[in-house]
Amino acid sequence: MGSEKKPPVNDNQAVAVFDTTHETLKAERFFRRNKIPFKPIVKPRGIESQCGMAERIEKPDADQVISMSLENNLNLLGIYTVGLEGEWDLWKCP
Amino acid sequence: MKQIYLDNAATSFPKPSGVLRAIQTTMKRVGANPGRGSYPSARAAGRILLETRETLAELFHIPSEKNIAFTLNATEAINLALKGFLRSGDRVVTTSLEHNSVIRPLHELVRSRKIQVETVPCPDGKSLDLAALKRALQKPTRLVVCVHASNVCGTILPLRRIGQLARTKGAALLLDAAQSAGVLPIDVVKDQIDFLCAPGHKGLLGPQGTGFLYFRDGMELRPLMEGGTGSQSDRPEMPKILPDRFQAGTPNTPGIAGLKEGVRFVRNRLSRIREKEMRWAELILDSLGSMEKVVLYGPSKPESRVSVISFNISNMDPAEVGNWLEQRFGVSCRVGLHCAPSAHRSIGTFPEGTVRVSPGYFTTRSEIRSFISAVESMVMKHGKRKKTARKR
């Protein structure tokens, strides 16, 4: 069924992936502090990471997420979007 | 009969009410397994671990909280550090005041990895022989293992100096802070500590079943256990990422939540805790020291020790003293060797041991006075009994 493959983001959203759960939870604190909207999701299978969690964010916030991660020594592996064929593409990284 | 709890060196009691509340709240409202899902309660559990690591890092000036592994107690932390770091044939320098939590794993490593151990004496248990330590470090040494404060006679070892000597000679330093964490200031950077092992349930006022190991960045450390971490699940080996590498299996999340509150309590009162414990130590040392038949061990100045006080009454078995204190006066104390036979050899009380009392932050002056009166009455009674015996 198509619904099985439906990505957890729409065209205006992306997925921020951190190195560990520890760092992902730490990042959430900075998201809240900086009023960056986010939604924790299970890391999609197509994204390579050691962490089982990821954060869905809005695309316009991506640069702020990168600079926030750099400022706070968070190991942001990358921000991913869904390609034309439903595959996960690395869109931005620090 | 009201209990007078003077065994805080074994585990602190009572605990701050915030510790109890945190445990209960975690059990009632969180419940989930940290790092094993992205749903709200699993994340809340994960945040407990994160925040506890951050709180510990703040108290001990640890540069990165990811270098903290939660353990069951200080013993597990010491085992993890020793067995994860030492390699076949390594040389270790340690002190004569160590607890069996150090002595036994080292003994096992002598057998299984052929490590060499040199023990530096602590004459009369009053301080570490620094000249002997310097001599011991003339030979290439991989690790110095040292207790911060003795669990037998309270002696505080010169940590900063030991750290300097070890670093100068290229040896790593493992500190057993079982009796000092939450009582004495510890700065892992300034004190040049490579491994800090501490229980959560003593001076840090957390529940039993908690403890931690800090390891300096770059130390080669293998995990003691392998298992699920909620990360890299497709691979058979433990992940290299921190803190996951040393966190196999479900942690004691409610206990760790309690530990966080204990550490927060301590963090805001560290100097007050130290001050109060010194006051109790001084009161006990002065009072017992003035009793004719009482023999005290360790340094006489309260500032050179933590509030762990060992004593004996001449010609009395420590077990008899302990039973008397407990049964007649409700004093909970510890008698015997305190899992530290080498420390007792240092102070000349092996194998019979001593009576040990260890007041804590929540001990009251009236409890200390009751304990002193109890010893006084026992000394008097024992004197009479001895006289009677002589008449016969």
Taking pLDDT < 50 over at least 5 consecutive residues as the criterion, the unreliable ranges of chain B are 386-392
**Backbone CA Rg of chain A:** 12 Å
Kindly report the average pLDDT value of chain A: 89
Strand content of chain B: 5-15%
Low-confidence stretches of chain A: none
Derived structural class of chain B: alpha/beta
Give the oligomeric state of the chains in this entry, treating copies of one chain as homo and distinct chains as hetero: heterodimer
Radius of gyration of chain B: 22 Å
Number of strands of chain B: 13
Distance between the termini of chain B: 35 Å
User: Strands across the major sheet of chain B, in which order?
Assistant: 2-8-7-6-5-3-4
What is the number of helical segments of chain B per DSSP (H or I, 4+ residues)? 11
Instruction: Estimate the strand proportion of chain A.
Output: 25-35%
Give the overall form of chain B.
globular
Number of strands of chain A: 5
Biggest β-sheet: strands ordered side by side in the sheet of chain A: 2-3-1-4-5
Summary keywords:
heterodimer; A: 94 residues; alpha+beta; globular; B: alpha/beta; seven-stranded mixed β-sheet; four-stranded antiparallel β-sheet; 11 helices; 13 strands
Question: Could you explain the architecture of this structure?
Answer:
The complex is a heterodimer of chains A (94) and B (392). Chain A is built from two helices and five strands, in the order βαββαββ. Chain A is of the alpha+beta class. The longest helix of chain A has 13 residues, at 21-33. With 392 residues, chain B is α/β, with parallel strands linked by helices. A seven-stranded mixed beta sheet of chain B has the order 2-8-7-6-5-3-4, with helices on both faces. Classes of the chains: A alpha+beta (94), B alpha/beta (392). The A-B interface holds A 19-22, 25-26, 28, 40-42, 50-54 and B 34-38, 43, 46-47, 49-50, 53, 66, 230-233, 239, 241-244.
